[in-house]
TrEMBL record:
Signal sequence region: 1-36
Keywords, sorted A to Z: Signal
Keyword Signal: yes
Protein name: Uncharacterized protein
Length: 709
């Protein structure tokens, strides 16, 4: 975790000459109001309220063809057999397998975390937890213990089995014997894990241990495979065009099935055979996503997003598999772009809901379930979506409100379930529009508010390192500040600035991470230009982040013309993110322009989740004469703050220089004030605290409403 910051005095940085120009730009900035909702905090994940009351969800399996079945497909209905009758809609959540500081290959979730998380999930009205792979034995042990202790309010599990590695992509062949056999073995291991009969050693690509807990009484189904790469899938289909139809005992392929669909039918048949040997039957589906859905989207600008169609209708259960199958989709409200351009979706008022209805209608005799959906509560966005449901730039309250509304919509249109992506924020995740700005080997060691993929969780993984504050400046009568205190953590540099008498109307906070980096001197001064500025309008409560032109990370994202950029003084760039490249709609030839997010538009307000009206995106706040600011590391051009690495674009490539620390200076009304330098120790073990996000009660209300509990 970050050590206590150290501070030193440095030469002042003159930048007051830019104050006038920046303040003029601030006058046009806008700030969205903070949303009000009581925070749902779970201190230490221990003091969890009792689960919601209602009708019991105790499993009541039925016998079919000699197989025990707690869930099954009945036409378009997904039926979960419980003591209170049949449940036909499942509100669920997706659970990853990492914690801050770790990557998926690590085993990092503790038994205590699983235990607390299961209770919190149930409290939020979640009835099913979906996992993507075999989890460590602690997951199954704690699930069994929790369900035995709460027999009428259990948590069901949807067991996933992902493809082993990405060899099929490199070889362009799902039918490669090594790919197939590795996946078959993983399917077999998964059936043994859920029944408590697996022992295996750890390998770099798999978790090892001894599984002794039988959770099959609460096994609601299986999701096998991964989101398939379109190009690799197309190559595999070409190589295996003569693959034989599947006529298994439990699953078969239809005459229309593609080679990939036949391969999936075979693997579903394998899995069904393993389970039938234990006298069990559960619904089995394969993972699909909007990129490879069975519908055609001629308006989609990117060919790879409509290159391959995978259709669950082409993989059918036989009479020997009574639990049947269902269609599963990872589908989000902001991507692909056919959601914005397809005429058949636009006239509905909600293109995403119209798309879900189209998927439902395509599968006329099997249930359709959305097994990934949601919007992230990040500052940065990666794509614009209809109805402002973008891939980021949402507060926690706004994100949970949107996701809760989508869950209600899914139930209303007759889908079989909706699984919110995801349970906990995962720090190792990357996004296409920030990945080039970061050191990939250390991404899991810090939490970037600009990378939306790290903020999908219902459970916030807040940075906890560097909690000590130290005084950087203490000068009675100083102006514009009399005292400045600072601390660092895994997401931000925090500043607490006590303003002097006659508070200025605007303030420039200069942040210099690479004093040795040469650049154009500031007008009227030979002093070094700071690397980043927070330009704050203290009266209008607006603000804008700027980065030195040489450090602008957009240089790493290909050609972004100046015409697409917002204005800034010479030598500076507003901190922006690319959210869509120029593209052409194939059916009309319409050319769609490049799209940008002004991620440096600084949200004003409080961010303490324990206080009402907090906005998780807020980066600065003014309380009487005390200004608090938190600066995301990326806005100071850090590629990895844990190793002091600042990203320096050179010829479109990321290079890094080690920062000696961040020099802080203030400027107001033409006066510069020397503050000092913040330094910290490298860290390799980050710290985090767990917190249910603001607005999560909206998910709870929706989940209880759609299940009539």
């Amino acid at each position: 975790m970050p050590a206590r910051p150290r501070f030193g005095r440095t030469r002042a940085t003159a930048f007051a000459v830019f104050a006038g120009a920046l303040c003029l730009m601030l006058s046009g900035a806008t700030s969205s109001p903070a949303l009000r909702s009581p925070a749902l905090l779970i201190a230490g994940m221990r003091d969890i309220p009792s689960p919601p009351t209602g009708t019991p969800w105790r499993p009541a399996p039925v016998d079919a063809n000699g197989l025990s079945m707690v869930a099954g497909a009945d036409g378009r209905r997904f039926v979960l057999h419980t003591a209170a009758g049949e449940r036909s809609f499942l509100p669920g959540v997706d659970l990853g397998n990492t914690t801050p500081g770790h990557v998926p290959a690590d085993v990092s979730i503790s038994a205590a975390q699983y235990r607390a998380w299961f209770a919190a999930m149930t409290w939020l009205g979640i009835r099913v937890v979906r996992i993507y792979d075999i989890h460590p034995p602690a997951f199954y042990q704690q699930l069994l213990a929790y369900n035995q202790a709460n027999p009428d309010r259990p948590l069901y599990v949807m067991q996933g089995v992902s493809l082993v590695g990405d060899a099929y992509i490199k070889q362009g062949n799902l039918y490669d014997p090594q790919v197939t056999e590795a996946f078959r073995q993983e399917l077999k291991d998964a059936t043994q894990a859920v029944s408590g009969q697996l022992a295996r050693t750890s390998l770099p690509t798999r978790v090892g241990g001894e599984w002794t807990a039988d959770v099959t009484p609460w096994l609601a189904g299986w999701l096998i495979g991964s989101e398939l790469d379109p190009a690799a899938t197309a190559a595999s289909d070409r190589k295996n065009a003569k693959a034989k139809p599947v006529t298994g005992k439990y699953f078969r392929s239809t005459p229309e099935a593609t080679p990939t669909e036949r391969w999936l039918a075979n693997r579903m048949n394998d899995l069904a055979g393993y389970e039938a040997a234990r006298k069990l039957s559960q619904p089995i589906a394969f993972v699909n996503w909007a990129t490879t859905d069975p519908l055609r989207h001629p308006e989609e600008p990117l060919r790879q997003e409509d290159q391959i169609q995978l259709d669950a209708n082409h993989v059918r259960p036989t009479e020997h598999w009574p639990a049947g199958t269902f269609a599963s989709y990872h589908a989000y409200p902001y991507y692909p772009d056919f959601l914005r351009y397809e005429p058949g979706l636009q006239g509905s008022g909600d293109p995403y809901l119209a798309y879900l209805k189209a998927l439902r209608d395509h599968h006329r005799d099997m249930p359709t379930m959305i097994t990934e959906f949601g919007v992230p509560s990040s500052i940065g966005s990666a794509h614009n979506g209809p109805l402002e449901r973008d891939q980021g730039n949402h507060s926690e309250v706004e994100a949970t409100r949107m996701s809760a509304g989508l869950l209600r919509d899914m139930a209303a249109i007759g889908l079989a379930g909706g699984f919110l992506y995801e349970w906990a924020d995962e720090w190792y995740r990357y996004s296409w529009n920030t990945v080039a700005h970061q050191l990939p080997t250390r991404r899991q060691l810090w939490h970037d508010p600009l990378t939306n993929e790290q903020y999908f969780g219902l459970l916030a993984m807040d940075p906890a390192g560097g909690t000590d504050r130290s005084t950087l400046l203490d000068a009675d009568g100083g102006w514009p500040a009399t005292r400045v205190r600072a601390r660092v953590d895994e997401s931000y540099l925090h500043l607490e600035i006590k303003l002097g008498d006659s508070r200025p109307g605007s303030l420039m906070v200069g942040l210099d991470a690479l004093p040795s980096l040469t650049g154009t001197p500031m007008a009227g001064s030979a002093d070094h230009r700071p690397d980043a500025i927070f330009a704050l309008n203290l009266v209008g409560h607006t603000g804008q982040a700027y980065v030195r032109e040489q450090l602008d990370p957009l240089q790493l994202d290909g050609d972004v013309p100046d015409s697409a950029r917002a204005q800034a003084p010479d030598g500076w760039r507003p901190f922006e993110l690319l959210v869509n490249r120029p593209q052409t709609v194939p059916s009309t030839g319409a050319r769609m322009p490049i799209e940008m997010q002004n991620a440096g538009l600084l949200q004003y307000g409080g961010w303490d989740p324990a206080k009402g009206g907090a906005d998780s995106r807020a980066l600065w706040n003014l309380d009487d004469d005390t200004l608090t600011v938190r600066v995301p590391w990326a806005m100071m051009a850090f590629a990895d703050p844990s190793s002091h690495a600042v990203g320096v674009p050179r010829a479109g490539k990321l290079t890094t220089q080690r920062s000696p620390g961040v020099t802080v200076n203030l400027s107001a009304s033409g006066k510069d004030q020397e503050i000092g330098q913040v330094t910290w120790d490298d860290w390799n073990r980050p710290a985090a605290t767990e917190r249910i996000k603001q607005g999560a009660e909206q998910i709870r209300d929706a989940a209880l409403a759609v299940t009539s509990d």
